[in-house]
Design brief:
Layout lengths: L6 E2 L10 H12 L9 H21 L6 E4 L2 H16 L5 E5 L4 H12 L3 E5 L8 H8 L5 E5 L11 H10 L6 E4 L18 E5 L10 E5 L25 H15 L4 H18 L3 E3 L8 E5 L5 H10 L2 E2 L14 H6 L3 H5 L1 E5 L6 H17 L2
Parallel strand pairs: 1-11, 3-4, 3-5, 5-6, 6-7
Antiparallel strand pairs: 2-8, 7-8, 9-10, 10-12
Helix pairs in contact: 1-7, 2-7, 3-4, 5-6, 8-12
The structure holds pyridoxal-5'-phosphate.
């Protein structure tokens, strides 16, 4: 966790790149051929892309040809949502989501609303989607479903198998897209195709370079492309591939897959931090089922923007919520979780990786104690 420059506890915004990812970027910069070129330089570049595709697809649990690289997680979700709306808009104009989706899903859904779609938003109070709401929603004809697997602010993990089963029980063939950006490689034995037909993942959330995402699309689903051009990525996402980004994504996934002890280390850090935070008289908002690498805390009476600045002055990085929502006034995700405005405005997101250690924990706890005292 310690980088020498600062103590970094904002991994849910972006993870620090691992050594394997950095090496892969440099190696891919040396293989500078265009992966579409029909000569040896192009073949070498193509090999890097396909090797990464195999690695990421295997971690997602799909076939390599079902995985398309994109320019970000945001782009992957936009391709999925726009594509599904076009594919299924004639069957139904109703889309099922939750009330705490990331802006990369929330905003394209808003755009669909302005085009005549109706969005049903399942509630996520305390990090749980009520069974009755799932059952009722899945009885209706749906264009498609788009639900996140884990929330980027609270760390809540939603049981999407329940949605899959409710759809099947009602003979509802609506395809399911899942924003798995935060849950990818953070949940044990997480085979995304067991509960969804499309899924979004992102390279920089798992230690790869920023600006690389991927979209899994089950092979029998044919969504139209959003970006047209040279026909790269089987025509799903035209544009010359970001080979260094893709190679680093593959390398980062490989590094995590070869470290089975990482879940336990994150869980231990999470629980020890939560215990220390509670011992200081602060509040932890821990959903019943949660990610091992996000802890949402609240320091009563201390504004989160002030706390983020004060911690930053001590060279400690945490977030006042998700990086994408810090500039907006009301936080819809925390409101949906059930926090009051006062609670939201005094809450911090602490997020980390498997490299978080005891020394980092000690420094963070001391700093949190100090900022509580400074405000007293
Ligand atoms: N979905 C979730 C849940 C996220 O947390 C994020 C990033 O914060 C994204 C999607 C967007 O991913 P990207 O930064 O690759 O566009």
């Amino acid at each position: 966790m310690e980088t020498g420059k600062y103590l970094y506890f904002d991994a849910a915004a972006t993870e620090m790149p691992c050594d394997e990812a950095k090496e892969a970027v440099l190696a891919a910069m040396e293989e500078y051929g265009n992966p579409s070129s029909g000569h040896c330089a192009g073949f070498a570049s193509r090999e890097l892309v396909e090797k990464a595709r195999e690695t990421v697809a295997s971690a997602v649990g799909c076939a390599p040809e079902e995985l398309y690289f994109t320019g970000s997680g945001t782009e992957a979700s936009n391709i999925a949502i726009r594509g599904l709306a076009k594919l299924r808009g004639r069957i139904s104009k109703t889309v099922l989501a939750t009330d705490s989706e990331h802006p990369s899903v929330r905003e394209p859904l808003k755009a669909l609303e302005s085009e005549g779609f109706q969005i049903l938003r399942l509630s996520t109070r305390n990090g749980v989607i009520p069974d009755e709401e799932i059952d009722e929603a899945c009885r209706q004809p749906l264009a498609f479903v788009t639900v996140m697997q884990a929330n980027n602010e609270t760390g809540a993990v939603y049981d999407l198998m329940k949605i899959r089963r409710a759809l099947a029980d009602n003979g509802n063939d609506a395809p399911v897209h899942c924003d798995a950006v935060q849950s990818f490689l953070k949940i044990r034995r997480n085979r995304l195709p067991s509960f969804c037909d499309l899924a979004t993942v992102s390279g920089h959330k798992v230690g790869g370079l920023k600006g690389t995402g991927a979209l899994y699309v089950r092979k029998n689903i044919r969504i139209p492309a959003l970006i047209l051009g040279g026909g790269q990525e089987q025509g799903m996402r035209s544009g010359t591939e970001n080979v260094p980004g893709i190679a680093s994504f593959g390398a980062a996934v490989r590094a995590k897959a070869s470290d089975p002890g990482r879940f336990e280390r994150m869980e231990r850090f999470h629980d020890e931090l939560a215990e220390a935070v509670r011992a200081m008289g602060y509040v932890c908002h821990v959903p019943e089922v949660h990610l091992p690498n996000i802890l949402h805390i609240q320091i009563p009476g201390v504004r989160s923007s002030w706390a983020v600045n004060a911690l930053s002055a001590m060279r400690i990085c945490v977030s006042a919520g998700s990086a994408c929502s810090t500039k907006k006034k009301d936080n819809p995700v925390l409101t949906a979780y059930g926090l009051t405005r006062e609670e939201s405005e005094t809450s911090l997101r602490i997020s980390f990786t498997e490299t978080a250690d005891e020394a980092g924990l000690h420094s963070l706890v001391e700093a949190l104690k100090k900022i509580g005292e400074m405000k007293r």
